[in-house]
Amino acid sequence: MNRIKKRWDINKNWQYLFPVLGSLMILLTAYYIARKFLHLFDLNNSAWEWPFTLTITLVGYFIALRFFLWCFEKLKNKWITTYRWEMIAIFIVFAITGSLSARLAAPLLDLIGIHSENLSGWFYWPIRILIILPIYQVLLVIVGWCFGQFQFFWNFEKKMLRRMGLGFLLK
């Protein structure tokens, strides 16, 4: 426990929430991917179902964990945070925001009558991406605020809008 506390600059017990939540999200993602592979190889309801699922889940977990730790090292100088555990919170916010904005775009498109069945994919997907973009921008700040990272995401948002040529919206 002291090793985790030292590695992630944890000062208070509630800050353990972020490494635990991050690990659980990686584990659930690895399990989800393993189940997709299970159906891909048609091993569902066979004797190999659970050994395959557990093996792929554990391998996927350790690969993803190594990848995210590598990302932390690469981004620690670019994303200035007070504590290292805040990096985990930032990654969690990006994960939640991306997934949530993609999920919210479909009902919004249904509401205005745009469906993948009645429109070519060449038109549907660019329209969907254009709908996702503003949803993502708003959710990024809201979810960042919920995780105590409002200032980081507000600065990130301003920088992103300026790079997109939409800096006039900030005035």
From TrEMBL:
Q: Which InterPro entries match?
A: DUF6787
User: Which keywords accompany this UniProt record?
Assistant: Membrane, Transferase, Transmembrane, Transmembrane helix
Q: Which residues form the DUF6787 domain?
A: 90-168
List the Pfam families hit by this protein, alphabetically.
DUF6787 (PF20584)
Kinase listed as a keyword:
no
Q: What Gene Ontology molecular function terms does this protein carry?
A: transferase activity
| Residue stretches spanning the membrane | 16-34, 54-72, 84-105, 125-154
Q: What is this protein called?
A: Prolipoprotein diacylglyceryl transferase
